[in-house]
Amino acid sequence: MFELIVKGGIAVTPNGAEEVDIGLIEGRIAALGMLDAGQAAQVIDAKGLHVLPGVIDTQVHMREPGNEHKEDLSTGTAAAALGGVAGVFEMPNTKPSTTTPEMLEDKLNRARGRAWVEHAFYLGASPDNALHLGNWERLPGCAGVKVFMGSSTGTLLIDSKETLLQIARTGRRRMAVHAEDEARLKERHHLVEGKGASPALHPVWRDEETARLATWRLLDIARAANRLVHVLHVTTAEEMEILARYRDVASVEVTPQHLTLAAPECYERLGTYAQMNPPIRDERHRDALWAAVRAGLVDCLGSDHAPHTREEKDKPYPNSPSGMPGVQTLVPLMLDHVNAGRLSLQRFVDLTSAGPARLFGLAAKGRIALGYDADLTLVDLKARKTITNQWIASRCGWTPFDGMTVTGWPMATLVRGQVVMFEGQLQGQPIGQPFRFHGC
Fold it and tell me: How far is the C-alpha of 364 from the C-alpha of 435, rounded, in Å?
């Protein structure tokens, strides 16, 4: 007897897309095939839907502790579930920063009974904890180490080559890095100083060379230290050319925002609401990102969900904060790209579930296969809907994609066999648990 059968859907399995029923027992996938609905306590009719492995967003900022006025673990993971995302990796630049085992444990405690989806938390690298990260990175619920090479908050900035090399040599897990050159950012800040600076100057200040210099330095250090690195939110054609030569040590992330928006139009239309780091760039760079996706150079997608209130975003540039919400819109945006022929559904699955599981060593996640956790994202590829601010569950209450009509929509989110979202409504109570990692 199954606890639940997902019946009649087209499942994207390691074999490809196939019409197959999925039987679930104790939160795991127990059977794949043509199953009798009478054998289950509950049945989800998935006819006309595609069933994907649960989508994993490996870069979100949930703002708790310290900035709960714009997001917290409850509202942020609710947004994830409503958007078809079954798990998230949360970043360490909270207040205080997540730089110690005690702060990691505090976040895990805060998430207990409040997180709607599976979760893990990064430890932030700082000059003060560099020698300890190798021991701490394997703690339960830890996604690994995050390094900010440019413009971080608090004590998390690592702009010294010597310190970065020390951190790289300390640990063994894949290290996630925000790569912007801090010295160049400081040198060029005069370009946006003074009254009346336009948000369109954001990619001028934080130019291609700012990204290229940092990524090049990071990759040389990664190879010298024999350390795997994950380069977050890559935005430039120049970086992609370099990364293609460092596949032995580097994996690559891009965001839906950088694949969808382009300068200067986004700044003309959205102003500071299009401001994020690294910035949205012009079509030449967007085209290069898509070419990297098609070539297999991109390993995963991350939303870089980074909400701010309207009051904060309405400040005059450059005093306005960088960042935008994204966890709830990742799936519909990318399904729209699938329908437009820019990537296949199988490639989307690789970028959002199989890829993250493979890169970070997630246990029993990322596949529709026997014995795996029953994290599932059910989508209607034909549904045509409009993204609106009213739909957004994030406490910030807005999205840069307000008014955008997309084809493809998340219809249900399952976490370990339990339905947490169905047809646009949260179900039951938050049941998210920490991800488990191989070897940790």
Answer: 9
Amino acid at 388: T
Long-range contacts (CB closer than 8 Å, 24 or more residues apart) made by 403-406: 406/332, 406/333, 406/335, 406/336
Check whether 154 has a pLDDT greater than 70. no
- Token reading at 387: 């993204």
Residue of 41, 111, 80 lying closest to 377 (CA atoms) = 80
Q: Which residue do the tokens 């609905």 mark?
A: 37
Quick: pLDDT tens for 370-425.
999 999 999 999 999 999 999 999 999 999 999 999 999 999 999 999 999 999 99
Determine the 3-state secondary structure of 29 from DSSP: strand
Q: How many residues does the chain have?
A: 440
Q: Which domains does the chain have, with CATH numbers?
A: 4-51+369-383+405-426 (2.30.40.10), 55-360 (3.20.20.140)
| HEC-encoded secondary structure of 38-91 | HHECCEEECCCCEEEECEEEEEECCCCCCCCCCCCHHHHHHHHHHCCEEEEEEC
Contact status, residue 371 vs residue 28, Cβ threshold 8 Å: yes
d(CA 97, CA 431) in angstroms, rounded, equals 25
Instruction: Judge contact between 181 and 210, C-beta under 8 A.
Output: yes
Structure tokens at 315: 């400040």
Q: How far apart are CA 74 and CA 253, in angstroms?
A: 25
Q: In 3-state terms, what secondary structure has residue 190?
A: helix
Q: Active-site residue 304, yes or no? A: yes
Secondary structure of residue 353 in the 3-state scheme: helix
The per-residue pLDDT for range 49-77, each reduced to its tens digit, is: 999 999 999 999 999 999 999 999 999 99
Give the global pTM.
Answer: 0.97
Q: Taking 80 as the threshold, does the pLDDT of residue 155 lie above it? A: no
Which of 159, 207, 304, 350 is an active site residue?
A: 304
Q: In what order do the strands lie in the sheet with 250-254?
A: 55-60, 85-90, 118-124, 142-148, 175-178, 229-231, 250-254, 300-301
The two three-digit tokens of residue 353, written as one number = 């579930």
pLDDT digits (tens, 9 = 90+) for 74-122: 999 999 999 999 999 999 999 999 999 999 999 999 999 999 999 999 9
**Rg for the chain (alpha carbons), in Å?**
21
Q: What is the pLDDT of residues 336-353, one digit of tens each?
A: 999 999 999 999 999 999
- Gap between the Cα atoms of 284 and 281, Å rounded: 8
| DSSP, res 339 | H
Which letter does DSSP use for residue 265 in this model?
Answer: H
